[in-house]
Structures are given as structure tokens and as C-alpha cells.
Specification:
Elements lengths: L1 H4 L1 H18 L3 E10 L6 H21 L3 E7 L3 E2 L2 E2 L3 E9 L17 E5 L10 H7 L11 H16 L5 E4 L4 H10 L7 E5 L8 H10 L6 E5 L4 H11 L3 E7 L3 E6 L2 E7 H9 L1 H10 L1
Amino acid sequence: RSCYLDPYRGAMLAVAEAARNVACSGARPLAATNCLNFGNPERPGIMWQFARAVEGIGAACRALDVPITGGNVSLYNETDGKAIYPTPTIGVVGLLEHADRVVGRRFQEAGDAIILLGDGRGELGGSEYLKAAYDVVRGVPPALDLDAERALQALLVELATERLMRSAHDCSDGGIAVTLAECCFGTSGVGAEASIADVQAARGAAMNQAAALFGESASRVVISAVPDDVTRVLERAAAAKVPARVIGQTGGRQLRIAVGGAIVIDQSVDDAERAWAGAIERYFVKRVA
């Protein structure tokens, strides 16, 4: 959806997210491949989407030093003259120097500190929230500072190499609320309690709250660390000029998230995981019925 709203920025975001996911594992991103899926390029608007997306991919790959090693293009993807959303799919490979230091998305155990790397700006343009809650695809996609993104990825590799983070998961589709939930899934019920800042914008209280929870600002990662390592993590982040702050702690069997000091999500991890794991099945059952 970001590529539909702004092909150039959407393509850059796709590259950044793919490389960030590799860095979250502790590996250094090395190279990228792509599959560029678009409608009929004989239509001027579609050809413009394609050209801008390629330019965006190039800009992000150069900034993050992840050259394209190959890829393919799929065109004329239309039904009854209606094109699919422009969809540049990006894959990134990386190098993990020490296999025993790979980092996963899941929280490990109760009592770890939860740290947010990067800043949230409550950007809802092209978000899952707008599509799921209002069935609209509109707005300006999240901004992307490629220098900040590169610094974040380098920091993640450093923290993993020094064994200073126990888990890492990037904030993307669904924003920080979904990221925190996914960090709890697959842990046999390890919950979390977190507090995030409110979003101050002229949208009204309810939409500001939604923007804080589900905004998809780029260059953000949720990590966990043992309490004794928190100071060193924050020092490394400060040296890399990456915003970082402790937002909560793992533990319990609930996911509790406060926005601006008020708890707005208080959900059993088990119930949330069941809903998450069965989402695709429910989607297709509704359509078959």
C-alpha cells in the first residue's frame, strides 16, 4: 500500500525493512534481490509507478550498501483492467559471524527489560490500521531517514555480537502494538508490560491513541535485554546516535500497553496468540461461507 501511495518512498521502505530484519537477527546485511510486481506497463501511470519504485530501490540499496545481485519482473498483473498494487518484493541476505549469537523475535523469560530503538511519529499513512479499521488506503507513507536506518542496523549487529540483546523484532505492519504482541507469541505465555508516549497531533484523542499504538514509523526495533546490560545497551545506542529508551519489562501472562500513562491494552497472551495464529483461516472461511 505504501508503494501505491508513493512508489519511490514505498520501495525504499521495503528495502529498509528487509535489511532491518536481517540486522535484527544479528547478521550484517550484504546484498539484495527483488521481484517487481506491477500492472500493465503500457499504461503511463503504471510505467511511472514502476520507474519510481526502481529509483527508490536504488537509492535505498546505495545508502545501506546492499547491492542488488539479481531479481525478476512480473508485469501485466491485472484483472478486468484493474491493476494490483505496485509490489516490489525485496529479499536481503546477510552474514552472521557467529552462529551461536543469532537473535530471534521472541522474549526469552520474565524480568528482562524491553527497549525501543528509534522514534515513533504516529504515522498512519498506508497503514494496516487504516485498512483494517476503516478499509481505506490513503495518506503519506512513513518518512525514512536512510542515515538513521543505517546507524540502527549497525547498532543491532553490534549488540548481537556483544550478546547484549536477547531478542529483537522490527516495528513494521501494525506498529509497536503488534510488534510487542508478536514478541510474546511462541514463548509459552511470557507476557509484557510496556508504556509508550502519546502522539500529539490534531486528530482527536482516539486517533492519536491509535497512531501511537499502530503507527508504522520506520527505523524502529523492540529489543529485550537482561537488566544488568541495559546501561551498556543505552550507551551503545547513544554512541551510534540511535534514540533508545526502556519502555517496559517482560513477565506475567498478559500483554499490557499504556499510552501516555493510561493502560489501553490489557490482553491475555494466550488469547491474542490464538487470534493471531488463526487469522488466515478465518479470512478464507468468511469468503467461502
